[in-house]
Amino acid sequence: MVINQQATSLLALSDSYPIPDIEELVESKTTTCPPGLMPITNTHFPTSVVHPTGRKIPKIIHITSRYRCATQAVINNVDKWRFQNHSVYFHDDEAIDKLFTHPYTRSLFPTLREGLKCVTNGATKADLWRYLVVYIFGIMSQYFLASSVGHPLMAKMLEVGVERLKATVNVMVNNPAKATGPGACKVGFIHFMAEVGVETNSHPKSHLATELFSILPLALITIALGPIMLLLSIHKSMTLNNCPFVYTAL
Questions:
Q1: Domain limits of the chain?
Q2: Strand 87-91's sheet: what is its strand order?
Q3: Which phi-psi region, left, alpha or beta, contains residue 52 (left: φ > 0; alpha: ψ -120 to 50)?
Q4: pLDDT digit string (tens) for 168-212?
Q5: 41 in Cβ contact with 69 (< 8 Å)
Q6: Type and span of the H or E element at 62
Q7: Neighbouring C-beta atoms of residue 37, cutoff 10 Å
Q8: Are the beta carbons of 122 and 204 closer than 8 angstroms?
Q9: Are 127 and 161 in contact (CB under 8 A)?
């Protein structure tokens, strides 16, 4: 299948470097926090539990914020994502930087380093991290993404975000939604569809094209609602461009 061939080809570029160890990435030196705050901890299960044979999307959830120390209210919300037999990893800025600078990452996405020079806000940084961590580890993010390992759609979104950052005239004029967020998602979708031979009348400068969703089963764009994975914001009875939607538990 074209998608599998693309993923295999891209991942082969990093054969000389090991995939980053997730536990090492999220390992934190933060053991104490200021009064009123506590460190957010990780939950780890072995691969045999979170990624058994035959399952494409591992039962791993990645969450990010600038600091690991948080209030009890925030920790309570994070704890709601600790589903049975699911690993939960919290990435602070230190962990994100480790992933960005890892040799494996740099060999896969050599232009990322230049794009990061144009990052001047946390939202943009988190956007790029989100595509990257989902691509490398094939996991669920607490935003709206879930993917199998090495899905080229995630690579397209990251590449679009990086190119838009590199083309920024004034890095202090930030528009994450357009440069690296939903705008990059949409254009990445369009590029991906073109490469796999799916026709669309979408255009990168047009409004969000409904026909993009015709490949949702391939892209695996989902949101985690409790222990069940549902397609983002799509009611089971809705149709767009005569294309019916169906949601299923993964």
A1: 2-244
A2: 87-91, 60-64, 140-141
A3: beta
A4: 888 888 789 889 998 998 899 899 988 888 877 666 665 443 333
A5: no
A6: strand 60-64
A7: 16
A8: no
A9: yes
Q: Round to whole Å and give the CA distance between 241 and 250.
A: 25
Q: Which one-letter DSSP state was computed for residue 212?
A: G
- Token pair 């397209």 is found at 156
Question: Among 5, 6, 73, 70, which residue's Cα sits nearest to residue 40?
Answer: 70
d(CA 31, CA 40): 10
Q: Where residue 119 falls among pLDDT bands split at 50, 70, 90?
A: very high
Separation of alpha carbons 247 and 182, rounded Å: 22
Q: What is the DSSP pairing of strand 243-244 with strand 239-240?
A: antiparallel
And the tokens for 134? 């989902």
- Pull the structure tokens for residue 6: 């693309």
